[in-house]
């Protein structure tokens, strides 16, 4: 059943994004930002972790998970290091994903020639 719920929850997050494109005519940047903020707000209220426990990859793969990671890391580090932990916690939790995206982007740009 975990695969079913991952598919349903991940699909619902994607449907929300698609509705934002089609109905509200939001740009990709506005949609992306809104979904990240939505994930951050849900984590701030303690609702995203239960969603991850329920849906697994259906909640950790979409972009809402990035907002969740930012807030989650900031809150964890704030408990340990105070106000400076808010800033360092966000970067500590998300740095590996961002670093990987930059590194693979550069490698892709070096290996492949763009068309056009």
UniProtKB/TrEMBL annotation:
UniProt cross-references to InterPro entries, sorted A to Z: Spore_V_AE, SpoVA
Record's keyword annotation contains Lyase: no
Pfam family, one: SpoVAC_SpoVAEB
Signal peptide positions (record): none
TM ranges: 6-24, 93-112
Record key words, sorted: Membrane, Transmembrane, Transmembrane helix
NCBIfam families: spore_V_AE
PANTHER family per UniProt: STAGE V SPORULATION PROTEIN AC-RELATED (PTHR38450), STAGE V SPORULATION PROTEIN AEB (PTHR38450:SF2)
Protein name (Swiss-Prot/TrEMBL): Stage V sporulation protein AE
Gene designation: spoVAE
